[in-house]
Specification:
Layout: E1 2-5, E2 15-18, H1 25-32, H2 43-51, H3 55-65, H4 68-71, H5 77-105, H6 111-116, H7 119-127, E3 134-136, H8 139-152, E4 159-163, E5 169-173, H9 175-202, H10 214-237, H11 249-259, H12 266-288, H13 299-314, H14 316-320, H15 347-372, H16 378-393, E6 401-403, H17 404-412, H18 419-435, H19 444-454, H20 456-459, H21 464-471, H22 473-489, H23 491-511, E7 515-521, E8 526-529, E9 542-547, H24 556-570, E10 572-576, E11 588-589, E12 592-593, H25 602-605, E13 609-613, E14 621-625, H26 634-648, E15 653-657, H27 661-669, E16 682-683, H28 686-697
Parallel strand pairs: 9-14, 14-15, 15-16
Antiparallel strand pairs: 1-2, 3-6, 4-5, 7-8, 7-9, 10-13, 11-12
Helix pairs in contact: 5-8, 5-17, 5-18, 5-19, 7-16, 7-18, 8-9, 8-15, 9-15, 9-16, 10-11, 10-19, 10-22, 10-23, 12-13, 12-19, 15-16, 21-22, 22-23
Length: 698
Amino acid sequence: MEHVMQNESSSAPLMYRLERPVYSTRDLETQLLHRKAKQPRTTRQRIKKQISCSAGKGKTILFSFLPILTWLPSYPVRQYLFGDVVSGLSTGVMQLPQGLAYALLAAVPPVYGLYTSFYPVLLYTFFGTSKHTSIGTFAVISLMIGGVAVREAPDSMFSVSASNGTNETDAVLDTEARDARRVEVAVILTCLVGLIQLALGFLRFGFVTIYLTEPLVRGFTTAAAAHVFISQLKYLLGIRTPRFRGPLSVIKSLVAVLIGIPTTNVTAVIIGLLCIVFLFMIKTINDRFKDKLPVPIPGEIIVVIISTGISYGLQISDKYEVDIVGKIPTGLLPPAVPDFSLLPNLFTDAIAIAVVSFSVSISLAKIFALKHGYSVDGNQELIALGMCNFVSSFFHCFTITSSMSRSLVQESTGGKTQIAGFLASLMVLLVVVAIGFVFQPLPQTVLAAIVMVNLLGMFKQLRDIPGLWRMSRIELAIWVVSFIASVLLGLDFGLLVAVGFAILTVIYRTQSPKKIILGEIPNTGLYCDVDEYAEASECTGIKIFHSNTSIYFANSDLYINALKKKDLEQGVTEMILSGSAPQLDDEQTNGKAVEPLGDSDPEDTHNLHKPLLQENINIHSIILDFSAVNFIDSVGAKAIKSVIKEYAEVDVQIVLAGCNGPLLADLRRLQFFEGTVTLDLLFPSIHDAVLHCQHRAT
């Protein structure tokens, strides 16, 4: 019977008194617990339930697929509209220059960055669940798209021979045909990315991001920032270099830039550096006075407008040979079906881009949702991104995701709902339809400056390293491997290596768990590490072994060896008879189950490896604390059963404590409770097991 007692003084601790019999698992199942009667459903019934339709279920599905239907009817116009308008205009002002700039990263003409800043943003208003993330172009995704576009449509494919007056032939690059082909590659890749994200969303695969841990993503995006920065150097310096791909591409690009420095366009460098200094100053002012400024100063659009005006007035393209954006068609292009003949070569790239795009977006969405007290649906976010990418690919857009810099502006300027993003997209539409041609004289070095300054936030992630060094060396290793692999091998192979390494760290953790001996804190029934706490003392004649890992084929050997090593340290030792080398018994060797041979005498197959009691120490029981064990396989079960029998030969009983329900079901399915190993050796708690062992020894 349990009694809760509270002292009249409010400062006294809450106390409870508990007196009950010692229960084994068999006692619990026969005396206390009675399973509820359940009517198992047939496969036909399950399928029927899934495909059945009703008005209520149809409404739920519709509202889930189109979240706008849940919040727009109750939109509080007076409280939210002004903030959404200001936020939408502020974000739209950033969308314009970033769309132009990131199109260069995607290896497509700048106007396609404007298309990508309109269609997907508009669609996300209807399908997205995050109220504060700004969907559109993003440096990392644009660079990954550009890498694929350059691979599938390299300059060498579009070199044509042009004869001059002296009958000599020179190779001339057909940039119009090259750009058209790269747009086709970017569009079909985006279509495939959208299809993959839609499939993952409908199959409820939103959990895939658990394999992209935060250190992995931050190391990867920092490496991507390095790729982006180096790729923009040629535009900043006004030089022409080939675009490299594959392993060591970042090194090759840097070397090419260094070799091309003698051909630097001084005018382009001056303009680019002035823009970088100005943008950095504006960014610093916005950060320092963000609480006092009603809206952030739109430094990027200011730079674009001023640079375009100066370029047009001074004719710097003609006089100083500075590369400019060039022709920007007025209006929207008609929709077109992507070229599906390119699909076979792009599937692997599409998977990587789809996962990275979703990972970045859901990470930002969760940050803002936690801050503002609402929830985001990971599966619906996959569907939203998939719809944005798939539908927009028919309108000549490339892959999108959430932008950190624009999302921060959208949130800090008072954005409350997806209406802010909707208004930002309308602002981009206005520019595309009416005044896009105005930006034709814009120098490309200005776009490079915008990109470089926006990378500052990503490079600040290098500050993670000291913190991870103090908190978790394994997570630091994931960050470093993700960064180095992505820098040297490229973003696609680098991501694959990073994910593989992260999975290996999980395996390593199961191979190197903490192994401890527990002791009781007097008169509490609580048990702690005897090496860690002075108050914890071992129960006479009883060893309580704890290891925070599951037991399966890869670590069952290690678990048994750790148990015997702890016994050796704490009082139980080993003796090898007949000069045999120490090893486990006939049923478990090197993590593999081995059946006894024929009718051989067990004594001949044991190698006579038996634990014995150290002189003057009476160890009669060992308790295996299974409270941290989540699962066990057949090899692990045979290993535990084998060691129970092995110690029983010298009259040392091993019992198990703290098994959870699923683990107990696993043991039953593996036929663990047969012969001498019964449910009487299982106990619901360590204290039950200790009392049982003490009673047995008396």
